[in-house]
Amino acid sequence: MEFEDDAFVLSARSHGENGAIAELLTADHGRYPAFIAGGGSRRVRPLLQPGTRVRARFRSRTSEQLGSASLEGGGGDPSDLFDDSLALAGLASAASVAAGALPEREPQPGAFAAFESLSGALRHPDVWPAVYVRFEAGILQALGFGLDLSRCAATGSTDDLVWVSPRTGRAVSRAAGEPYRDRLLVLPPFLLSAQGGLSAGDIGAGLRLTGHFLDTCLFAPLNRPLPPARVWLYDRLAEANRL
Fold first, then answer.
1. Phi, psi of 186 (to 5 degrees)
2. Which residues does residue 236 pair with via DSSP β-bridges, in sequence order?
3. Given its phi and psi angles, is residue 114 left (phi above 0), alpha (psi -120 to 50 degrees) or beta?
4. Taking every pair of C-alpha atoms in the chain, what is the biggest distance, in angstroms?
5. Which of 45, 97, 208, 237 has the most CB atoms at less than 10 Å from its CB?
């Protein structure tokens, strides 16, 4: 089996004397692990940084085996983020969420598009935290656990949607949810519309919302906690007063 695809590196670890095992998020083939010959070399090592975009050529004897891949630069790497520790934390969190949540070798074009959008947004400090929340919502959507924010779960109204049910992932209006507000998750306006704008507390509310469903729908069924990089991102944003 042989194919080429655009991909983002999610993680890489040393293997053998000079090789590496990489997890790649490909455009057309989903999350794909591969052995990278020369992964410890000066030429290849920079391509294995999480978040680097590459062009990968995969080869394996059968579709079930761990194959090998050769990598070429794909026109994007995170080196220009090295002076922005918050953006790097966002990139590391996104890579760990994708690596932990997405099944192997199942096409996930929505997840790839979400990662691609976030990768571009990380260069814009005032924008990327909101795009990150949308990235996590996109991962949930790609895996069949998308939030239903179209109308109130109780009344069918499309107005004044301010909460989300932690059980169903459906929006709840202010009037319908008021008696149960302590049990509901806050719905930040920017998730309802690209023109929703950002107010104080919106990023924190968004991360708590998507984090709840990532945990309960994706990671808990696998008997795993949320990735440490995801927890670290929340803590770093809190320290920087960005929630």
1. -70, 135
2. none
3. alpha
4. 63
5. 97
Angle, to 10 degrees, between the axis of helix 202-213 and the axis of helix 228-239?
Answer: 170
CA distance 22 to 202: 35
The pLDDT value recorded for residue 195 is 67
Cα(39)–Cα(44) distance, rounded to whole angstroms?
5
Pairing of strands 19-26, 2-15: antiparallel
- Within 10 Å of residue 96's Cβ, how many Cβ atoms? 22
Concatenated DSSP letters for 149-160?
-SS-TTT---SS
- Are the C-beta atoms of residues 113 and 30 closer than 8 Å to each other? no
- Tokens for 28? 């057309």
Residue type, 35: F
DSSP label at residue 216: I
Side chain identity at 65, as an amino acid letter?
Answer: Q
Separation CA 196–CA 10 (nearest Å): 31
pLDDT, averaged in runs of 10, over the chain (243 residues): 90 85 94 87 86 90 76 79 91 96 93 94 93 96 94 93 96 95 95 80 97 96 95 96 93
To which residue do tokens 């509901």 refer? Answer: 184
Quote the distance between the C-alpha of residue 242 and its chain's center.
19
